[in-house]
Amino acid sequence: MTTMRKTYAEHRQDLTARYPQGVTPGGVAIDDIIQLKLQNTFNTHLDIAREMAVVMRADMAAYDADASQFTQSLGCWSGFHAQQMIKSVKRLRGTTKGAYVYLSGWMVAGLRNRFGHLPDQSMHEKTSVVDLIEEIYVSLRQADEVAINDLFKALKTARDAGDQVAEQAAIKAIDTFETHVVPIIADIDAGFGNEHATYLLAKEMIKAGACCLQIENQVSDAKQCGHQDGKVTVPREDFIEKLRACRLAFEELGVDEGVIVARTDSLGAGLTQKVPVSQGAGDLAAEYIKWLKTEAITAENPLRDGEIAIMKDGAFVKPVRMANGLFAFQDGTGRARVIEDCIANLTQGGADLLWIETDTPNVDEIASMVAEVRKAVPNAKLTYNNSPSFNWTLNLRKQVRAQWIAEGKIHEDSYPDGNVLMSAEYDATDLGREADDRLARFQVDISARAGVFHNLITLPTFHLTAKSVDELSRGYFGDQRMQAYVNSVQREEIRRGVSAVKHQHEVGSDLGDTFKEMVGGERALKAGGHANTMNQFAAE
């Protein structure tokens, strides 16, 4: 937590002053009031956005001082996925520091909208993105409630036993409790319309709790997944207006430290929707137009009715226009356009972080582009998509093979080229082991060498859910039946300490029992008695 909240003792002092008898006139114990106040870790989701923005800014400053302090997230398509991820991080590290949640527009389109399973083309309802942010924070806050309730149960047990040491330990645990609420980087796609539509949606996302918005420079009505063909970018001044729309939304709602991630898809985008109007040499429009593919106007290729011409290098030329009216960029200019996009987004659009969508995971490629950007903006930082769209095994094995050949370490015939390198027969080879070592180091390397502050995987829980359900189904509907469930799910939950193994507790049955006791005392009808089968897991 980043803001100062009252301790258990401070709450008790305040409430004792109001209720010297230790209970309200209606018979509510002040300790029960304290518990509910502390369980309610945030009053509103706008408060979450404000506080998590401060967390992100502090993390960015820490990264500027030490590039090993990068942050990470996994893309989650439900509140439960996000909750379990953060609980796992807390079990592993003892803290949630450096862990965020990524909300992918791809997964909202594919899994979380009323229109069914859709491609990543901004066809899903805008409200579905907002709803998922809200759901994620409801789940993370419930994790707080369940955990703090357990701490108060420990406090009550210690007091009932007269164990003052245990009592003080329980109070200390309550006062030092770290929330499960972490920053969300929320995908607003290409803004779902014009700059005003972007502003309106941004406000709703922020009110739902988003402290960080990621927006891309594609055309809203022609938006494609970053790893598919047919991407169409907008002129830089158009995109900058949307960056400003997001900033205005943050400022209006008092999220002064709100973070904007400006994503460029120019590396893989060969088209633009329109030719912007240049007001003078070197302006944003001129720097965008210079990359258009053009044809000379000659007697053999005259300017015909309905065609357009632009002045380029002192002569009129025809920009190449596709049958659908889109204009083509010169081949091989994506890298240069990316660098110019990034500089403009930081210096003129006020973006805080960059996102460069690439077609392969190559540290050298990203580092070389960032080095160019940093000549203009020395502290430029990135969010990088460690995408499941990459064949990581094949890509890294190819990179190792090419490097070793160039260095003379192996001959071209030492390992085959092409997709055959994906074969399991290469897993235990020197090349396979080196590729796996580089895979394990990838995020460390790209953060140290390429300015990547935040490493994320966009769609891991989509793939994980598909794989896990397939794994269970193969055994359960095959010969193993219940053994498949126990071996692949329950034993692993128990042995790893995954709290969801006690599923009733995980969704708040103990919270309900506690509240019934608060208002009903001995009359409370509780679910957690001796007949509760969750007691079978009590020793774990």
UniProtKB/TrEMBL annotation:
The keyword Magnesium applies. The active site is at C225 (proton acceptor). It comes from Caulobacter sp. 602-2. NCBIfam families: PRK06498.1. Keywords: Lyase, Magnesium, Metal-binding. Mg(2+) binds at D187. Signal peptide: none annotated. InterPro entries: ICL/PEPM (IPR039556), Isocitrate_lyase (IPR006254), Pyrv/PenolPyrv_kinase-like_dom (IPR015813), Pyrv_kinase-like_dom_sf (IPR040442). One of its GO terms (molecular function) is metal ion binding. Pfam families: ICL. This is Isocitrate lyase. Can also use Mn(2+) ion. GO terms for biological process: carboxylic acid metabolic process. The keyword Lyase applies. Its cofactor is Mg(2+). It catalyses: D-threo-isocitrate = glyoxylate + succinate.
